[in-house]
């Protein structure tokens, strides 16, 4: 997120596990990196490997994963429901030195927060939509746990308090926005019937186009942010750049392309809109003194 680099790109079968992929992609992680992942990539083995590499992580707790506390040499299962009933809306507590799963993986910090009524309604609207699509209702315990936001992290408390950890985790949403933009702008999911070989050319060509435009877009965003403190919308910018990507790929000399004209177009037509009271990813990075 800070460098604009693509760490890894591979094409797999649609039914391959995200969690297994996360474990096999550990070689891209360097000491002092921060990995922010969604539940699809949740894996006790991957978390253990991240910690062993001297790397930091933030992840949500999977609803079926049990949490344990060690008291006087005895294991005690954490009763999150009792604790949750004591919290007011928007209130959070932090627990240190917990263990998760059958493996009893040590987690330095667990941050437990009760959602506000507005946040709960938004989450439930998403849950109901997902239930309808899959034709399967969630278990009572899973629904109950969705009243809360439970994060696991090994970030040191002296560097980031609980609220700052939540703000860092919110940056993960940029991945969803990016994928949505890729699907919309580059029509990733729209493929006509064709031979396998032609499809492979189409797929890899589209992925190359995405990487080229994404690399240029990152540099453009950094340029305007540093020069005029202007934030560029990735979605708006991709819409603009999509019509230029073939030039970036086919021209043999970058000097032939008027890059400044592209930069000016982005400044004029791709500024990020601001909703009242909402922080952008750049705002969060700046506030936390990361960017």
TrEMBL record:
Alphabetically sorted, this entry's keywords are: DNA recombination, DNA-binding, Transposition
Family named by the database record: Belongs to the transposase 11 family.
- Where the record annotates domain Transposase IS4-like, the positions are 11-211
Name used for this protein in its record: Mobile element protein
Gene Ontology terms describing biological process: DNA transposition
Q: Which PANTHER family match?
A: TRANSPOSASE INSL FOR INSERTION SEQUENCE ELEMENT IS186A-RELATED
Q: Name one Pfam family in it.
A: DDE_Tnp_1
Tell me the superkingdom of the source: Bacteria
Give the species this sequence originates from: Geobacillus proteiniphilus
Record GO terms (molecular function): DNA binding; transposase activity
């Amino acid at each position: 997120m800070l460098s604009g680099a693509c760490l890894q790109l591979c094409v797999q079968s649609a039914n391959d596990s995200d969690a297994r992929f996360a474990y096999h992609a550990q070689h891209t992680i360097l000491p002092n990196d921060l990995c922010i992942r969604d539940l699809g990539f949740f894996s006790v083995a991957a978390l253990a490997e991240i910690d062993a590499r001297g790397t930091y992580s933030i992840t949500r707790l999977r609803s079926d994963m049990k949490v344990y506390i060690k008291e006087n040499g005895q294991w005690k299962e954490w009763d999150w429901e009792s604790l949750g009933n004591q919290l007011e809306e928007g209130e959070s507590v932090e627990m240190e030195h917990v263990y998760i799963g059958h493996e009893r993986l040590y987690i330095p910090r667990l941050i437990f927060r009760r959602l506000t009524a507005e946040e709960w309604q938004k989450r439930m609207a998403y849950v109901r939509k997902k239930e309808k699509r899959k034709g399967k209702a969630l278990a009572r315990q899973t629904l109950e746990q969705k009243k809360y936001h439970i994060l696991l992290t090994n970030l040191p408390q002296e560097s980031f308090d609980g609220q700052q950890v939540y703000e860092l985790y919110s940056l993960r949403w940029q991945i969803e926005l990016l994928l949505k933009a890729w699907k919309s702008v580059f029509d990733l999911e729209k493929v006509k019937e064709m031979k396998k070989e032609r499809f492979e050319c189409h797929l890899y060509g589209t992925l190359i186009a995405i990487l080229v435009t994404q690399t240029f877009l990152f540099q453009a965003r950094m340029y305007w942010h540093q020069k005029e403190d202007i934030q560029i919308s990735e979605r708006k910018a991709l819409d603009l750049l999509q019509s230029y990507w073939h030039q970036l790929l086919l021209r043999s000399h970058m000097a032939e392309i008027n890059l400044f004209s592209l930069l000016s177009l982005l400044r004029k037509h791709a500024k990020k809109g601001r909703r009242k009271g909402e922080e952008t990813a750049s705002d969060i990075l700046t506030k936390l003194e990361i960017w």
